[in-house]
Amino acid sequence: MSRLKTACTLAVLLSGSVLSTAQAAGTLTIATVNNGDMIVMRQLSQEFEKAHPDIHLNWVTLEENVLRQRVTTDIAMKTGQFDVVTIGNYEVPIWAKQGWLTEIKPDAAYDINDVLPSVREALTSDGKLYALPFYAESVMTYYRKDLFQKAGLTMPDAPTYDQIRQFADKITDKSGQVYGICLRGKPGWGENMAYVSSLANTYGAQWFDMSWKPMLTSDAWKKALTWYVSALKEDGPPGVTSNGFNENLALFASGHCGIWIDSTVAGGLLFDPKQSQVADKVGFASAPKGPYGKGPTWLWSWSLAVPVSSHQGTDAQTFITWATSKEYVKLVADRKGWVAVPAGTRASTYAAPEYQKAAPFASFVLNAIKTADPSGQTAEPRPYTGAQFVGIPEFQAVGTQVGQTVAATLSGQMTVDQALTAAQSSVTRSLRQSGRAK
Amino acid sequence: MAIKTKRSTKIAVTCLGWGIALWLFFPIFWMILTGFKSEVQAVSTPPKLIFAPTLSSYAEVFERASYWHFTFNTVIISVGATVGALLLAIPAAYSMAFMPSKRTRGTLLWMLSTRMLPPVGVLVPIYLLARSTHLLDTCTGLAIVNMLTNLPIIVWMLFTFFREVPAPILEAGRMDGATRWQEMTMVLLPLALPGIASTALLSLILCWNEAFWSLNLTSSNAAPLTAFIASFSSPEGLFFGKLSAASTLAVAPILVLGWISQKQLVRGLTFGAVK
Q: Which residues cross the membrane (chain A) (predicted)?
């Protein structure tokens, strides 16, 4: 009898857990990443629920790569687990072409023209808008003003890569654990290859020609990669192949980097004394230029989209419209201060004198994002868009493959020539397998 | 001389034992320590051993996520999977240990071979099955997957423990008129209890720490502690302090349970080792 009781209790507990998971009508499940701006959105979303009592928000915070994998599975299999998904401008055009995303049609009050044109275009496919930008970023140069002053150096507003290298040499003090330059070295399409692709662009290199033949063994790629490897080997921190955005942020914030070239989103973190020991010593300049000078430029935006598998598309659009609106920016400014508002998306944010005062890097970021052009012209015609990535579905795999080869040059396992030759053949193989190249 | 050598060997073995124990425990110690640091201290180079401890990471972890919700799910999933697995594995191991056929050995090896398949290889079919049976993001769905994943190991362990029980004892029970069910429940199970307890504990630990299926088959309602930990990893911004605090909170219950039952666990694992 007691055995029967135990079995019944277990059955009730388990079935209870099934019943409790049945999603109530009006509940939106939002898949997001654990970034500072997203955390603020989650905290302030109570205001949205107050204004929309019929809509309840359910948050799922996932690691970036797990989020991509989960959301891809969910949408491809039409499970409908997520009503709002946080994705980047790499995914938006690809997923839109697959028919996975709902077209977004914000009303006049949303003022879509206030959204910076470069950001808006990156979320548009075939003239239709498929996501609303939550925050956006480009690339810029951060440097330590005190180290530059001590070495008698002046950082120009628009430095070149040759100048950056000279500065890095002069301010490196390995015995004092101060490294002239910190760059992404951790393998991954969104890690080292985001930076390396961007560097290659300004050296006149590109990933593919018009027939999707990889161009990784070109002289421009060789020059760009030689600069990268040599700068990091001579002036970079130890264990550079483990350093991604976060690790470099930690190194710079704790006073171990002289120069760091990375996302504009780091500005808010480096200027925050709670997170940075060098908050009062940070200087900033544009991203350096290489010999080619032109080329596509880095643009990334974390955006909110509604998958077609969502059963509550209308409510989901209401939420994403609220979370990316001018009113939301004002709400963040009122509750958390102007420095905490999502950056890089709206012209009205940058026009606010309070924001300009709170974020000394604001005009630089605005200029970087305004002029960011992921569709910029490469030295030779190309069949793809994207600056720090190639806007094709294969790039996640291909970029990570090449990222590992590039990391091997930093650890001394391969020379630059060997790495580029290996990358060329692996990318050729991958694109043939996917049927994109013949 | 002989005593001297014996003593020095003893000291060396003790030192080696302590060295290995400290080496194994160091990551856990570092995780606990990092949970009490600020984000800047957590990533400082060289790492800081002496610092002003803060509870800010714990405060943020509790503010951002419902720890108790994730813990409740983990307990339900782990206990459910373990109970289910034991209910299936005990009769299976009993029949294999005491009524072996010519296919028993092959069956045991085949069961174990399923553990060699990388879980991602069956992600799509399992996901589709969970979707069509409405078990996505439910504790029941994850408990079933965990149960099936751990079943081969549990059957193997119980089979090994049962084989240590002398068959004449069971025969004596049968002579006294016990049915197969009574023989298993009233004779075998009490004798093999330490082994069953350690198997159950191992299954609980495996379910508690399971991350792949947890992250892929749950989203919010049935998400366990592994999903709770993963949610503190950030692509942009410092997070080691909060991640360490979340990890400490997640492993604390199972660590305490393991500590309390370590005597039982060791007894179970060495059950039948010395005859």
A: none
**Strands A179-182, A257-263: pairing kind:** parallel
**Are the C-beta atoms of A84 and A304 separated by less than 8 Å?**
yes
Q: Which segments of chain B are extended strands (E)?
A: none
Q: Are A405 and A181 in contact (CB under 8 A)?
A: no
Q: Tell which of B131, B220, B225, B232 to mutate to test the A interface (max A CBs under 10 Å).
A: B220
DSSP E strands, A70-223: 84-88, 124-125, 128-129, 132-137, 139-144, 179-182
Residue type at position A371: T
Measure in Å the smallest separation between the Cα of A34 and chain B Cα atoms.
5
- For residue A80, what pLDDT is reported? 87
B66-231 to CATH, choices 1.10.3720.10, 3.40.50.720, 2.40.50.140, 2.60.40.420: 1.10.3720.10
How is chain B split into domains, by residue range?
A: 66-231
**Cα–Cα distance for residue pair B75/A119, rounded to 1 Å:** 45
Query: Which domains, ranges and CATH numbers included, belong to chain A?
Result: 25-130+300-364 (3.40.190.10), 139-297+380-434 (3.40.190.10)
For every residue of A347-377, DSSP letters joined together read: HHHHH-HHHHHH-TTHHHHHHHHHH--TTPP
Q: What is the pLDDT of residue A25?
A: 57
What angle is formed at CA B13 by the lines to CA B7 and CA B17, rounded to 5 degrees?
145
Query: Is A191 strand, coil or helix?
Result: coil
How far apart are alpha carbons A192 and A242 in whole angstroms? 10
Task: Select the residue from B34, B219, B242, B243 to test the A interface by mutation, using most A Cβ atoms within 10 A.
Answer: B219
d(CA A15, CA A242): 45
pTM for the complete prediction? 0.81
CB neighbours of B221 closer than 8 A, spacing ≥ 6?
Answer: A20, A21, A23, B137, B138
Phi, psi of B161 (to 5 degrees): -65, -45
CB neighbours of B231 closer than 8 A, spacing ≥ 6? A34, A61, A62, A63, B65, B246
Burial of B171: CB neighbours in 10 Å, binned 0-12, 13-18, 19+: middle
Q: Closest to A177 (Cβ–Cβ): which among B45, B76, B131?
A: B45
A87 has which bridge partners? A303
Under 8 Å between Cβ of A219 and A438: no
